Here is the input.
Amino acid sequence: MPPPVETASPTNRRDDGLAGVLAPLQPTLGRILRAHGIPLEDRDDLLQEVCLATFKSWRSIRDPTGWMIRVTDRLCTNYWLRRRSRAQEVPVDDTALEVLANAHPSSSQGTEGAMLDLATALGALPLRYSRLLILRFAYGYRPAEVADMLGYKPSSIRKITQRALALARQRLTGGD
Here is the structure.
């Protein structure tokens, strides 16, 4: 009677090394990266981070497949957290306010007052709204670029812009 044949379960693939685990797992990891909305240009970098973390912990890993899936999910979450924290560094400065004030000058009379009102309104807005409005209208970035800079989905920029403009309009007209 021939010896029983072992099936290639994730645990048995561990003996094949990292390449043996990664090869059949790549489609699954790719789906996780896509589900998290990771841009195409960053997917390979995240996958390399997963492989590096796996390699570093290889001896202590019992189930490499499950471990790599969890690490991929965690790294995807950290990716967006890092992107969002970098977005907090977008400057809100006087130059942006000047550009906004001069974008549609109706006349030289009242420009300083309008600039002051605009600066006051933008200063009273939540930080994410003021940054969005300045990037969008003062610096002229497209919605997709603003979404990338601030860490939002491009599809949400239109709605957030509408809310920010409504709140700014409310503050400018004194309708707190």
